[in-house]
What we know:
Number of strands: 22
Radius of gyration: 20 Å
Order of helices and strands: HEEEEEEEHEEEEEEEEEEEEEEEHHH
Number of helices: 5
Distance between the termini: 69 Å
Structural class: alpha/beta
Strand content: 25-35%
Amino acid sequence: MGNHLVVPLIIHLALSTNAQVPIISLNSASSFGVIASTSVTTSAQTTVNGDLGLTPGGTFTGSLSISGSTYTGNDPVAIAARADAEAAFEAGSAITNFTDISGEDLGGQVLNPGIYRFTSIAYLNGILTLDAQGSATAQFIFQIASSFASTAGSSVLLLNGAQACNVFFLIGGTAGIGAGTAFAGSVLAKKMIALDTSAVVIGGVYSLGGVVDLNGNAVINASSQRPPSNHLPNCGATDPQSRRGELGQLLLLLCAVPAIAADNIPTLWAIVLRQLDDGFYKRFLILFVAYFGFLLLLWWFGCVVGAEN
């Protein structure tokens, strides 16, 4: 069993290290947390950090809290965003320099930047780790010919400069994100996208030909990590060694907690804790705790001295 798990991991690292990953971009769709073609449904309070688009038509049902703008019907902003999302899907799907991992579970894998191909359905059962190897502009592209499904409690962990806005799941069928999943990346699917209870997506969900079904979720648009001065077609810092994107994502998660439904908080904090597996974040947390601990000590000392006087 041990050898069976180790060998594919080594192969993927070797192949993807030398891969020249083409840049694909969502362009105007990058500010959207949700895009749907026919309808957006929610069965429990859901938070969308970003814009929401519904085109060419359809309805909203349920309770949605949207931090950005809503564009529907023939609105030119919605039409352009959907077209850009479709263009990104087609561009990413047309890349032929890929590593075929059909039939393998994404759970438990550690992958370097590259293009990964599934000729049929793809599953995520556990933790998928994406290691950018210090490059804030590195992309991870998953070409999935059929459908995609993650089991409850799964997650996508970003390490060493990896950013959610540079992760793309291009799905030819439907996409299902399991309950409590901590997901990072843009999900572009030809058919329906369904998020189960309390799943959190840092990135976006874009159904190019169907419904987006939400159920007490938080969708945090990944473009909020992008530095304002960066005009590259992809997100990320211009300095490939910079950790701004990862740190920005961590701070975004911490700040997002009070704004979302209570049911999402355990999933959101699970992302934070998994990100802390990286030594960079451990050092950040230690400094953060030490700083506020020092302030607390000063406050306590002032109260004690003041009381004695």
